[in-house]
């Protein structure tokens, strides 16, 4: 019954899904994906700059180096090879249509690729952080041969933030953080049949959207006894975006219509973190052990007549265990699907791998997607 209701809501929301809406630019961060994050209370990674400015109050010095490789791949991974083989194999139109229809199946097909660009770098010094993030990606939701929602493109964002720590003595430390960001995106959106896209080379008729905007984030984080951390973060409390539409991608750069105005939907979330003091007990074998839990967004509860997903999908929790300060073991749950991964930190060389589930529908189990991520960097 829940799946039927969720399917009905998806159909009702098609007009919203197919209308272009700008999105917040997020970095490709394989580490946090492996245990259900990113988490609001995480102060281990410099990537916290992009999710919670209050975390900067607990970070004194970190550097974000441009990754050699940072990418994620999502979908029914067993079908990706069949899809590539079908698209490059040729054959007559009827065979091609049947092959694509077989791959899509009765429940549709969801694919995703996200790549972190070379313009991803930054630093945190004395509770002040700045960072550039560059991403390129494609999200394809193919509901049937004649209906799809394919979105692709790239974006560039600049983030500046500061976390002000207040030492409360034996009562702990309270950090108040604020960040601002500027962003630019160029994306396309295609909502017609995939057969037209493949057989009739309809790429030139896809519209393009150029957008510029900025956003403001506010966060509060409290840490007590060097053990427990609590955070509240309001992302995109004000995030206006101006969008220019080109009816065809081949017309990009030509004189088009006027810029239209939109707002990125705000998110209000809460997080908990427990640092388990186990290093001395294990003689340094387990150098770090942290347990996290977040509720990512309660803002939609305050909106009337709005379609939103099952509230349980906003819950995430996980843990990270670091051995000898070199090997990280990670496991968690996000959107009611398991996540796991490993990391290797050799000082100048770092590598991370993740595998995790994602829910693209409104109810748990309605439209699951399997994702993998990989990243590697060398400090110089």
Explain how this protein is built.
- β16 and β17 form a beta hairpin.
- Helices cover 13% and strands 49% of the residues.
- With 380 residues, it is mainly beta.
Task: Provide a compact summary of the structure.
The protein is 13% helix and 49% strand.
Q: What are its keywords?
A:
globular, 18 strands, single chain, 14-stranded antiparallel β-barrel, mainly beta, 380 residues
Topology of helices and strands:
Blueprint: H1 2-12, H2 14-18, H3 30-33, E1 61-64, E2 69-74, H4 77-88, H5 93-104, E3 109-116, E4 121-125, E5 128-144, E6 147-167, E7 173-190, H6 194-199, E8 208-224, E9 228-238, E10 240-246, E11 260-263, E12 267-275, E13 286-295, E14 315-323, E15 327-334, E16 337-345, E17 349-359, E18 368-378
Antiparallel strand pairs: 1-4, 2-3, 2-18, 3-5, 4-5, 5-6, 6-7, 7-8, 8-9, 8-10, 9-12, 10-11, 12-13, 13-14, 14-15, 15-16, 16-17, 17-18
User: Can you summarize the main beta sheet?
Assistant: 14 strands, antiparallel, barrel
Mean pLDDT, as a whole number?
83
Would you count the extended β strands for me? 18
Q: Enumerate the strands of the largest sheet in spatial order, edge to edge or round the barrel.
A: 2-3-5-6-7-8-9-12-13-14-15-16-17-18
End-to-end separation:
56 Å
Oligomer: single chain
Q: Please give the share of residues in helix.
A: 10-25%
Low-confidence stretches at least 5 residues in length (pLDDT < 50)? 1-18
Beta strand %: over 45%
- Individual helix count: 6
Q: What is the radius of gyration computed over CA atoms, rounded to a whole number of angstroms? A: 22 Å
Give the helix/strand class: mainly beta
Principal-axis shape equals globular
Q: Secondary-structure element sequence?
A: HHHEEHHEEEEEHEEEEEEEEEEE
